[in-house]
């Protein structure tokens, strides 16, 4: 850089900020790809960077800020679920898309056993990554609180409870389940059952609450009795959906509709209904949740609640990058809308 013909050394972040008329933190956010900066401000900062010939020293920045330019995505589930369920692959695609234009590497980590969790705790305790994304969070999972204790930026897909303090990105699970159940009831179905997810997961309890709300709004006084009789726990797997549907048929042979809290469980329900000689949707209407690729390949095609899973992944990554760039930033709680997609099964 030259000033009145004299070389003044390499341009600094402060000089870029002064040239652009913004704060040092804003320049840092632009360099790190934060979505918090408006397009207009980003353009001004980028023009100042170009005018001054500023080149970010990423190695020095990482060293000074104890940065690794890497984040971890933790999935506390068996690899059989990871590779069988579209939800996880869609989350990964969304995260990867958000990181594509950054220098941040993504580390995929499975945490299934106490030994693996202990090793993971030691890894994070050594600050080998800049932040952590978590999916499939159970109510008693201690990792989010541990990350808070370590002052490690973290963002959850979903949440452990309605009082979650850690940043999270979630879907409107209660509203989506209510819409699905109301759709079935609106078709004149009255023996409407549900297959829940594991009830130690807040997402499963929210979808059960949505189901119960729709029953109350339509059936009134008889809603609680119906919900108690026709709510069967599943585990978000196809086999779990099959077993739960067999239990529903045992409890209520006259069942005429099922809301499954995931498309994977709905696929299992479809198998069980077919084995029992029940036609879908003639005898039993069926609705799933996720609107995954599974919904578009069942026979009949599956009516499902669409949650924007890839957008969840993208948003999680963006929120995490914001927290890494500015550790003092307010924790973010983001709820994305859902939509009922009607197909042949209902």
TrEMBL record:
Residues 11-65 form the HTH lacI-type domain. The keyword Transcription regulation applies. InterPro entries: HTH_LacI, LacI/GalR-like_sensor, Lambda_DNA-bd_dom_sf, Peripla_BP_I. Pfam families: LacI, Peripla_BP_3. The keyword Transmembrane helix does not apply. PROSITE patterns: HTH_LACI_2. Keywords: DNA-binding, Transcription, Transcription regulation. PANTHER family: HTH-TYPE TRANSCRIPTIONAL REGULATOR GALS (PTHR30146:SF109), LACI-RELATED TRANSCRIPTIONAL REPRESSOR (PTHR30146). This is LacI family transcriptional regulator. The lineage of its organism: Bacteria, Bacillati, Actinomycetota, Actinomycetes, Kitasatosporales.
């Amino acid at each position: 850089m030259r000033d009145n013909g004299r070389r003044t050394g390499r341009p600094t972040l402060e000089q870029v900020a002064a040239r652009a008329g913004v704060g040092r933190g804003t320049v840092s956010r632009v360099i790190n790809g934060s979505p918090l900066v408006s397009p207009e401000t980003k353009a001004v900062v980028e023009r100042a960077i170009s005018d001054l010939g500023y080149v970010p020293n990423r190695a020095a920045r990482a060293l000074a800020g104890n940065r690794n330019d890497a984040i971890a995505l933790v999935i506390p589930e068996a690899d059989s679920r990871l590779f069988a369920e579209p939800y996880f692959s869609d989350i990964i695609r969304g995260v990867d898309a958000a990181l594509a234009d950054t220098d941040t590497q993504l580390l995929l980590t499975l945490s299934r056993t106490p030994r693996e969790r202990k090793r993971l705790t030691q890894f994070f305790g050594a600050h080998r990554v800049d932040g952590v994304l978590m999916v499939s969070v159970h109510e008693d999972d201690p990792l989010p609180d541990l990350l808070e204790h370590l002052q490690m930026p973290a963002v959850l897909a979903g949440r452990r409870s309605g009082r979650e303090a850690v940043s999270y990105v979630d879907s409107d699970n209660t509203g989506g389940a209510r819409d699905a159940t109301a759709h079935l009831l609106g078709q004149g179905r009255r023996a409407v059952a549900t297959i829940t997810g594991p009830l130690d997961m807040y997402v499963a309890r929210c979808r059960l609450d949505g189901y119960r709300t729709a029953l109350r709004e339509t059936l009134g006084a008889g809603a609680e009795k119906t919900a108690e009789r026709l709510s069967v726990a599943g585990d978000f797997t196809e086999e779990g959906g099959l077993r739960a549907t067999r239990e529903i048929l045992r409890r209520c042979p006259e069942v005429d509709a099922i809301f499954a809290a995931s498309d994977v469980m709905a696929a299992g329900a479809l198998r069980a209904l077919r084995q029992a000689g029940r036609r879908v949707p003639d005898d039993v209407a069926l609705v799933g949740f996720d609107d995954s690729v599974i919904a578009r390949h069942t026979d009949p095609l599956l009516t499902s609640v669409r949650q924007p899973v890839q957008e969840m992944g993208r948003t999680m990554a963006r929120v995490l990058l914001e927290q890494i760039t500015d550790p003092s930033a307010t924790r973010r709680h983001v709820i994305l809308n859902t939509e009922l997609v009607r197909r042949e099964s209902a």
